[in-house]
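User: structure tokens for this one?
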Amino acid sequence: MAQEQTQEQIRSGKELILATKPFAKEDRHRSWLYLLSTLLLLICAWVGTFAFPWLGVRLVFSVITALIMVRLFVIYHDFLHHTILHRSPLATIIMASYGVLVLVPPSIWKRSHDYHHNHNSKLFSASIGSYPIATRAKYFSMSNSERRIYLAVRHPITIIFGYFSMFMLGMCLNSFLSNPRRHIDSIFALVLHFTIVALVIIHFGWLVWLVSIFIPFMISSFLGAYLFYAQHNFPGATFARNEEWKYDRAALESSSYMDMSPFMRWCTANISYHHIHHLNARIPFYRLPETMAAIPELQHPKVTSLRPTDMMKCFRLKVWDPEANKMIGFKEMGVE
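Assistant:
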């Protein structure tokens, strides 16, 4: 009887989403504190990449810069969800400038990411703003060239070199070519980036470019691209046909909780609580842990991590098998 009562008390759907509503309120002072402190730390770390005479120290600051870039990007991502600092002219200038500087211009990110939230884990329509997902049958019906493209987009090398593939090509060049008028900020971001690179190389040399731009962008882009991949492509993730899709189920069953150290949770601004973020994107990043602690239904998520073994498990997944109700790799597909 007690077990039946417990099961009856488990909330889902609209009731569960409403339970998160009290946490979908920002503390304006905290939002400004986290934004400005992160921005200050980023500037200090970046200055450290060329201010010291010792290469080893500069490389350490290069890695630190990359990690803080990820944190500030997640804060930027929250801002574009209208979760924090909404309607603040100053925040709009800071965030739009940052988006352009890190090759994630506001116009394409907001449009594609909003679509992703509304179609996460839908078969046949989830690939806009996300990695493409094919069913096993669909994959085997593809031509050889279509298979190569599909696998290339999801390939670890593509994610490792996300600086070029996801951000320069995907976010900037492709978006501008698809709609130049709507995405003029995309080509501006690309031109500005190469102008800064050229000026740094001309005035400071290749080594400064390497430690102050190339390494931070490579590391932060890889981490960002991988987080976005693994948060929806992990063992246990489920996908549904459009007519069977439900928003709350997509959040809880197709979005992972990523097990991280406190340090990495800080660096990624709690984006590891991704199942909660997808359930209610209006919850500020700094309130996600308390939301999980307060709502029992959110405390048993599907988990992955940044450990190499878990990363390999995620990378092995290639297609959705509706019969097995899981993502599978080449071995289960019978492909050598």
